Amino acid sequence: MTATTLIIAWAVAFVFLVIVEIANGAGLLSIWFALGSLAAMFCAIAKLPFVVQFAVFLITSIVFLIATRPLARKVQKTAVPTNFELDVGKTAQVVEGIDNSLNTGRVKLDGTYWAAVSADGSIIHKGDMVSVVEVSGAKLIVEPKM
């Protein structure tokens, strides 16, 4: 391969990896390899052999990965609560009496009807208000609202 071809190849790799990084959205998937390809492109500009370019690509990528991954993980730990986590603590109205021994019980929460069970096994009557303490699959585990 000619020096120009290698420069173009590393530049294309850099652009592609940056696009993958931007499109990923989850963050920091390919940025280390993009930086490695950028370093390798500079080696190609300096007309270093391909073996050296590839070694610089690998070493640079690994060094950036090792140096920044702990920081990246710390930044990415911003958890986004899921729907079921958002429902815990909310108040719902019992629309069908809750009796765990009969496997009955439904509640209405934010306009949606859910199967429900009592957290402590107590019977909860229709019309009572309950608090959601947990979500288990498609069932809400509730306790009487005090």
Distance between the termini: 77 Å
- Overall, the morphology is rod-shaped
Q: How many E-type strands?
A: 5
What proportion of the residues form beta strands (DSSP E)? 15-25%
What structural class should be given to the helix and strand makeup?
A: alpha+beta
Order of helices and strands: HHHHEEEEE
Helix content: 40-55%
Query: Any low-confidence stretches, pLDDT <50, length ≥5?
Result: none
**In DSSP terms, counting alpha (H) and pi (I) runs of 4 or more, how many helices?**
4
Rg for CA atoms: 28 Å
Largest sheet: 5 strands, mixed, barrel
Identify the strand order in the major beta sheet. Answer: 1-2-3-5-4
Number of domains: 2
Query: How would you state the average pLDDT, rounded?
Result: 86
Account of the protein in words:
The chain has about 150 residues and is α+β, with helices and mostly antiparallel strands. It has two domains: about 5-75, no CATH class; about 85-145, OB fold (Dihydrolipoamide Acetyltransferase, E2P) (Beta Barrel). Helix content is about 45%, strand content about 25%. It has a five-stranded mixed β-barrel. A hairpin with a 4-residue loop joins β1 (about 90-100) and β2 (about 105-110). The longest helix has 27 residues, at about 50-75. It is rod-shaped, with a radius of gyration of 28 Å.
